[in-house]
Specification:
26% strand, six-stranded antiparallel beta sheet, single chain, alpha+beta, Metal Binding Protein, Guanine Nucleotide Exchange Factor, Chain A, 2 domains
Length: 387
């Protein structure tokens, strides 16, 4: 292994972190370097997988790699071929035109969204793919040993009926990896593409319960703050295109800020399952979805929040003193996010197959939504360059 490359087989990630690269990171830090035969930041992207030859359910997306992603997905370098038809007769079909990937004001590459159809089937499967290619103008024409047909494919299985089990499964894989004898890499040493995106079980098990019990927490990604005192615009969020997490304490009554704004619950509490071999169906916590209303406004703002709290039933009553009981009742974690008018989901692969298998008019709408990622990635890439 090149000394500049982090091998995912040889390290453990800090709790809550996974390989979740932005479009810009994939092209700037992985695809361009691979094309130019330069050392890669990490081995998270599989080497030369023939995505266009093998049915997606036959791809070598092993637990080794799943432990660093979220859900059933995988990244791989591959060669572009015409038709994108597998040996079995299945094929990948584009669901819209290419969309530029921006790094600041520069077009560094392009991405295309595909859905997979099994041989002889008229309805798409649950498999989706993003194919990334570099802007040819960035690669010197006189460079030798350059493979201009090389792309990165991100393949993901997205089930309409998937629920919390996917988060639990990913959390279990991460915990299994964390139990190995490998040394945990520090947050400062993480290469490009790794971000803090904990699963719901990780939020409860790795952070909230440990906070309540005064146990050591292995990273400082979640800060303490009087969350409900401040309008979300005033919160110390480094990158407003990403979710931010905070420890805080709740008080009885409405969640009103000092300025008079308030958070309003939307929907019912959701149970969070432990989801591992110890107790698959054990409820370890709950989360509630909130939307923010600025002072005097009747219309919701673009700020949303999930509030996580622990299941009090995890703590035996006979061993719970008043201090611990107060922490159980009041300590929460808030995950806050600003959904800008031009902000879609962080990744097109969150589209469900039912959304993709519909009329061309609807596809055009999705494509228009996808194109708005340009501004997201521009902002993200500026943060990447500064970090």
């Amino acid at each position: 292994m090149d000394p500049q490359t982090i091998s995912i087989e040889d390290v453990k990630l800090p709790p809550g972190f996974c390989f979740a690269p932005t479009h810009t990171e994939l092209i700037r830090h992985y695809l361009i370097k691979k094309i130019l035969n330069r050392p890669l930041p990490s081995t998270a992207i599989m080497e030369y997988i023939d995505f266009n030859d093998i049915d997606p359910d036959q791809l070598p997306i092993s637990d080794q790699f799943l432990a660093y992603y979220r859900g059933k997905e995988g990244y791989g370098f591959t060669q572009v071929v015409e038709g994108r038809t597998t040996r079995s007769g299945g094929h990948w079909k584009a669901s819209g035109p290419e969309v530029p990937v921006m790094d600041g004001d520069e077009v560094i590459g392009f991405k295309t969204h595909f859905v997979y159809y099994s041989a002889g089937e008229e309805k798409c499967t649950h498999w989706t793919m993003l194919e990334y290619r570099v802007n040819p103008g960035l690669i010197a024409t006189d460079s030798t040993n350059i493979d201009s047909t090389l792309v990165i494919c991100k393949v993901q299985y997205k089930d309409d009926t998937e629920n919390l089990s996917s988060d639990s499964d990913s959390s279990k894989k991460n915990e299994n990896k964390m139990d190995s004898n490998n040394q945990t890499i520090s947050i400062a040493e993480l290469p490009p593409g790794y971000h803090f995106k904990p699963t719901d079980p990780e939020v409860i098990h790795e952070f909230l319960i440990k906070k309540i019990l005064n146990l050591p927490i292995r990273n400082t990604a979640i800060k303490d703050i009087a969350f409900y005192d401040f309008d979300p615009e005033l919160l110390p969020i480094a990158n407003r295109k990403e979710e931010a997490y905070f420890f805080t304490q709740v008080v009885a009554g409405p969640r009103t800020t000092k300025s008079g704004g308030h958070w309003k619950a939307s929907g019912r509490d959701e149970s969070i399952m432990r989801g591992d071999e110890v107790s698959l169906d054990e409820v370890i916590g709950f989360k509630t979805f909130f939307v923010f209303y600025s002072a005097g406004e009747k219309k919701t703002s673009n700020w949303t929040m999930h509030e996580y709290r622990v299941n009090p039933g995890l703590f035996p009553a006979e061993s719970t003193n008043e201090t611990l009981k107060s922490k159980i009742d009041t300590f929460v974690i808030c995950k806050v996010h600003k959904e800008d008018d031009d902000d879609s989901s962080n990744d097109e692969t969150t589209f469900s197959p039912s959304q993709l298998d519909q009329s061309e008019e609807t596809m055009d709408n999705e494509t228009a939504t996808s194109s708005r990622f340009q501004s997201d990635q521009s902002e993200t890439s500026k943060s990447d360059d500064q970090s």
